[in-house]
């Protein structure tokens, strides 16, 4: 098959040629946009799931829906230990620009507030040369959204930007990827601002995406967060959706798969969207012609596995310290014994400590380090699981160090 015409896209956050299995989330968000446009109360949205299930792709697709509705939009990717003010200011600046506000006085006033909010990232009393300049071409307006308390400032800033959008019959949507990496104060402020905006009925929504423990992070910050967001777990694709993700782009190129090939591909990928793209690309490249057969899939499997080993599994494993790698290998072995690969409940931390012959408390530094690196998560107290599907299976296939 012609590799130039290969339609598959196994890239990080790269939209696949056929976004299969996400119609429910796209339709739900469209309802949210239209209800808010009509002045109806609605909640913000949080997407959760393992790595490789397409959260970022879906987040970008939802943003496209907001853009088509003529909303102002902005997007950030949260990073551990990073200050929220700078990236959020840039995202909100873009959102205001997209609104195309004709009332110049109101636009400049809100942008002035936004600039003052951004400049507080340098801390009170900082010299002008030390303050970040966000590229907003108006003077800073002090007295609102610049108290230095992120919760107070976000509530005021969101309300004023939403009011600006409401005046022109539009809305604002902010999209936050890797939301679980926000700091505690930032999470609390974000929840408080969404709560206030919701109570006022203003056209402003936050759409977050993160790992499976994100709801617990939000709940620990504000008890009412359980009622503040629509929570949608993004999981692997059902068999028919995985087949659609493979066949639709192939048919566009005049090619197809045999039923046996589709069966083999679903067995190999478990329906995880990133794996579907990786195996689809490899199978296309080795197949001599259409239809792609189960034999072609078998020949392509080593190339697909090598691609995943380097770009999906290996790069993550390399980031871990020796103690963290020991922890992950023990977790992988326990999953293998129990046959629970991919189970969101994971394994009990006490069992993991027993397997290593250590006290549970002594493993806390490795566990906390892996959580901060986004390699494992705790869905419930006393249990731990990988954030990456098939990671345990990958580790069990690697030689001991």
TrEMBL record:
User: What Pfam families does the record point to?
Assistant: AAA_16
Name a GO molecular-function annotation: ATP binding
Q: What is the lineage of its organism?
A: Bacteria, Bacillati, Actinomycetota, Actinomycetes, Micrococcales
Q: Which organism is it from?
A: Brevibacterium samyangense
Sorted UniProt keywords:
ATP-binding, Heme, Iron, Metal-binding, Nucleotide-binding
* Source domain of life: Bacteria
List where the protein spans the membrane.
Answer: none
SUPFAM superfamilies this protein is in?
Answer: P-loop containing nucleoside triphosphate hydrolases
Coiled coil regions, renumbered to chain: none
Q: Where is the Cytochrome c domain?
A: 166-317
Query: What PROSITE patterns does its record include?
Result: CYTC
* The protein's name in its UniProt record: ATP-binding protein
């Amino acid at each position: 098959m012609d590799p130039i015409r290969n339609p598959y896209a196994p890239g990080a956050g790269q939209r696949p040629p056929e976004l299969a299995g996400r119609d429910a989330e796209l339709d739900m968000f469209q309802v949210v946009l239209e209800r808010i446009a009509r002045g109806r109360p609605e909640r913000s949205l949080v997407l959760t799931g393992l790595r490789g299930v397409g959260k970022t792709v879906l987040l970008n697709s939802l943003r496209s829906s907001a853009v088509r509705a003529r909303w102002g939009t902005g997007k950030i990717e949260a990073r551990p230990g990073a200050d929220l003010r700078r990236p959020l200011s840039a995202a909100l600046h873009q959102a205001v620009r997209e609104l195309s506000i004709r009332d110049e006085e109101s636009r400049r006033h809100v942008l002035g507030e936004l600039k003052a909010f951004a400049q507080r990232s340098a801390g009170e009393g900082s010299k002008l040369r030390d303050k970040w300049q966000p590229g907003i071409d108006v003077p800073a307006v002090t007295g609102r959204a610049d108290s230095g308390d992120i919760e107070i400032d976000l509530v005021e800033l969101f309300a004023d930007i939403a009011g600006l959008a409401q005046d022109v019959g539009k809305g604002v949507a902010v999209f936050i990827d890797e939301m679980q990496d926000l700091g505690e104060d930032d999470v609390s402020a974000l929840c408080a601002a969404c709560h206030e905006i919701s109570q006022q009925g203003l056209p402003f929504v936050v759409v977050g995406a993160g790992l499976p423990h994100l709801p617990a992070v939000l709940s620990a910050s504000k008890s009412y967060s359980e009622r503040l967001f629509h929570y949608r777990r993004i999981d692997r694709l059902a068999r028919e959706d995985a087949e659609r993700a493979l066949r639709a782009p192939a048919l566009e190129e005049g090619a197809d798969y045999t039923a046996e090939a589709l069966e083999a591909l679903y067995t190999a990928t478990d329906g995880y969207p990133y794996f579907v793209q990786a195996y689809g690309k490899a199978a296309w490249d080795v197949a001599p012609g259409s239809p792609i057969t189960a034999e072609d899939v078998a020949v392509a499997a080593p190339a697909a596995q090598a691609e995943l080993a380097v770009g999906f599994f290996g790069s993550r494993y390399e980031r871990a310290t020796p103690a963290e790698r020991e922890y992950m290998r023990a977790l992988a072995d326990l999953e293998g014994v129990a046959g629970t690969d991919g189970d969101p409940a994971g394994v009990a931390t006490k069992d993991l400590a027993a397997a290593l012959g250590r006290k549970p408390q002594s493993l806390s530094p490795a566990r906390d380090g892996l959580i901060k690196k986004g390699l494992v998560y705790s869905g419930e107290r006393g249990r731990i699981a990988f954030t990456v599907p098939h990671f345990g299976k990958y580790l069990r296939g690697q030689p001991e160090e």
